[in-house]
Design goal:
The structure holds two protein chains of two kinds. Chain A is about 65% helix and about 0% strand. Chain A is mainly alpha-helical. In chain A, helix 2 packs antiparallel against helix 3. Chain A starts with a helix and ends in a 21-residue tail after the last helix. By secondary structure, chain B is mainly α. The N terminus of chain B is likely disordered. The termini of chain B are far apart. The chains are: A mainly alpha, B mainly alpha. At the A-B interface, helix 1, helix 2, helix 3 and helix 8 of A face helix 1, helix 2, helix 3, helix 5 and helix 8 of B.
């Protein structure tokens, strides 16, 4: 559904990334930072060189490591950023709820199709509570 | 009461796990692609490598932050940094960027089904790794010959700790790529090309930060 289309999109997009063009941008950025090292103003040079390094790292992480095409919670894994915009995002929110929700882990009830499927294999006499079907003891 | 055996009809009513239908169809069309396991919306292997990289960020992040704080406190370290071989460091940056390109082209070749090209690109990545390690070894020799050993001072301790830990990661990456390449040449585990590539690009990113910090920041 949403999740699978997200994954599929990640794969689709990764095929159209202009890897070689990004490589030349990275090499140009390397030359720029070497050039900046000769600047008179040391502090400004340091700041600019750091900015260039950030851009290079962003390009590698975004395009070569496909971070730009991953669902946002993968971006969250290295702890890059966390704010409520992510929780407002419907795709992330659904994934997040499914992954970390307390309800999901402790108050989980099998859907009716599962009952029909799995629990019907156990004779009704073996179950302690054959009314609901949700609270079947498996022995 | 007799136990009901699930018929074909009841099986059909089971909700299909999200995403597996489309993925299965795609895999049937491309028989060389091995099966994808995905416990979340991201394939498990890829999510795993990102968790691993999160721990790597903590290691390198701590070391780099510590160095930057010391470096701000000690402007005289600029004179020491001037003894590092900037041209060698620049060439090594270029070599690692090139290796990253080779690795990502290997991934692209796999997604197009060209395992032969992918295998070649991975060998080129490993070759770049050898070149990087060779230049690094030359640099270490040059510095130690001048008396700049790991115990020559705090700057050199940081220098060897940061570049040494990074070089170990390059070495580990080369072995990992070699192992994946071996499997890919047999047509197995082709999804691991992207995973090992993500690791390799991370090692590249670490160097992108180490190079300006240890080589370019050579003035007061």
């Amino acid at each position: 559904m949403t999740m699978s289309s997200e994954t599929a999109a990640a794969h689709e997009t990764s095929h159209r990334v202009p890897y070689v063009r990004i490589y030349w941008i990275l090499v140009a950025a390397l030359l720029v930072s070497l050039f900046l090292a000769f600047m008179e103003h040391h502090m400004l040079a340091a700041a600019l060189i750091f900015a260039v390094a950030l851009v290079k790292a962003g390009l590698v992480a975004g395009y070569y490591m496909h971070l730009k095409f991953e669902p946002r919670f993968v971006v969250l894994v290295p702890g890059f950023f966390a704010d409520e915009r992510i929780h407002a995002d419907p795709v992330f929110a659904s994934t997040y709820r499914e992954l970390f929700s307390v309800d999901h882990r402790f108050n989980w009830k099998p859907p009716s199709s599962y009952q029909l499927h799995v629990y019907e294999l156990i004779p009704r006499s073996a179950s302690r509570n054959d009314g609901s079907g949700a609270n079947v003891s498996v022995r | 009461v007799s136990a009901a055996v699930p018929s074909a009809e009841t099986t059909a009513t089971l909700p299909a796990p999200a995403g597996h239908g489309a993925a299965a169809t795609a895999l049937a069309a491309a028989p060389h692609v091995d099966e994808e396991r995905a416990a979340t919306s991201v394939p498990t292997g890829r999510l795993g490598i990102w968790w691993f990289l999160a721990s790597e960020i903590v290691i390198f992040g701590g070391l780099i932050t510590c160095y930057v704080l010391f470096r701000i406190r000690h402007p005289e370290w600029g004179k020491l940094a001037a003894h590092t071989l900037t041209p060698a460091g620049a060439v090594n940056t270029f070599v690692l960027l090139t290796s990253s390109l080779c690795m990502v082209l290997a991934h692209e070749a796999v997604s197009r089904g060209n395992l032969r090209l992918a295998s070649q690109a991975m060998m080129q990545t490993i070759f770049c790794g050898f070149v990087f390690m060779g230049i690094k070894a030359f640099e270490y020799g040059h510095e130690v010959a001048q008396g700049f050993t790991p115990v020559a001072g705090l700057f050199w301790s940081f220098y060897y700790a940061m570049t040494g830990l990074h070089a170990l990661h390059v070495l580990g990456g080369m072995f990992a790529i070699l192992a994946v390449r071996k499997a890919v040449a047999r047509g197995q585990h082709v999804r691991r090309v992207e995973i090992v590539g993500i690791y390799w690009h991370f090692v590249d990113i670490v160097w992108i930060f180490l190079f300006p910090l240890l080589y370019l920041a050579s003035r007061g």
